[in-house]
């Protein structure tokens, strides 16, 4: 059955990974338009999915064009996972168990990669789910350091009833800045050992990587996560213009709505190279605070307006003057969709060591203002902040000017709108003693006293 069902869905080779808050229906359809042949839903928590109808309705959205589709669940209770699987089996082609999430939330909930040491439980989960539904049960896993243990792990899952295995060639410790390079050697060893279809995940930044991985590991398909987030046309083998991809995605969102946080996240990744330029901070800010679809369209149009003349060759953009949009060229101008390249774990460690050393040295420094006066480190940081954003030099938070209360014995900052040039505490005392109001601080001592007198007279009549 393992090979038969995979053939029935067309033996897909190009796969979009399950990504929390990122592989929603609109994004899946965009990727399908540009070469993806199989998509996963985001990871759903089985316990919440079975108990909360609203969570089910909001999270699991699909349509006729969204096939073949694999729905992914996480959890550690075989019966609950089986119940969740039954709820979606008629709307998908397979159901996947997330055994790869390395995040701390997965550790607290005991799911994802933190189940990989409990083989007995995993066998029970796979068997229970396989018996409960009519579609295949698949697993997405991470490797162990040891190649042989990774192979035995895969064989155990196959024996339990897993019909397809996605192998992420990193250990659960390889995450964030310590992600590093995925091991295709481990994936190759698993492929050679099992008889079920295998999907490889890791180190995929362009179509050339896809074919290199297929050739080396001999797997059945390639999955992309981070690579396809920055270039949804990765499997098409092109590096398209970023605003074209973004606007096409927004058209799909208009038809298949999703939370604004998803949209914002996708656009930040598509435009990640453009936002490295400081003169785009205003557009970045618009994207950061946008709440409606039109805000996000404006971001795309502003970027297009700013860079389209460079793209069309009307204005020279320095070393990016000559560009190639097709093929596997990764040296591209910032407005072209391209991979996000992480620094290596070694570089990250070296960077953090350098920062630590600088902090030790800096703690012993004597800081001076532009006039040569010795100031505190805190004051120096404030001055540097003002230098980075000179347009905000005069504008302080809450309308404060930075001046001090005119009461000689008070160190508090002056209220920006106080009629008497006091801080709020001193102003309140003054109003109480002298029967005054201060509209700036919204202190209405005089007004309330007059109202009390008026009310008292009415009562005595």
From TrEMBL:
Q: Which reaction does it catalyse?
A: 5,6-dihydrouridine(16) in tRNA + NAD(+) = uridine(16) in tRNA + NADH + H(+); 5,6-dihydrouridine(17) in tRNA + NADP(+) = uridine(17) in tRNA + NADPH + H(+); 5,6-dihydrouridine(17) in tRNA + NAD(+) = uridine(17) in tRNA + NADH + H(+); 5,6-dihydrouridine(16) in tRNA + NADP(+) = uridine(16) in tRNA + NADPH + H(+)
Question: What is its cofactor?
Answer: FMN
Q: Is Oxidoreductase tagged as a keyword?
A: yes
Among Pfam families, the record links this protein to: Dus (PF01207)
Which EC numbers characterise this protein's activity in its record?
A: 1.3.1.88
Under InterPro entries, the record lists:
Aldolase_TIM, DUS-like_FMN-bd, tRNA_hU_synthase_CS
The GO terms describing molecular function are: flavin adenine dinucleotide binding; tRNA dihydrouridine synthase activity
Q: CDD domains annotated for this entry?
A: DUS_like_FMN
Q: DUS-like FMN-binding domain location, by residue? A: 16-260
Which PROSITE patterns does the protein's record reference? UPF0034
| Family indicated by similarity | Belongs to the Dus family. Dus1 subfamily.
Q: Which PANTHER family match?
A: TRNA-DIHYDROURIDINE SYNTHASE, TRNA-DIHYDROURIDINE(16_17) SYNTHASE [NAD(P)(+)]-LIKE
This chain belongs to the protein called tRNA-dihydrouridine(16/17) synthase [NAD(P)(+)]
Query: What species does this protein belong to?
Result: Diatraea saccharalis
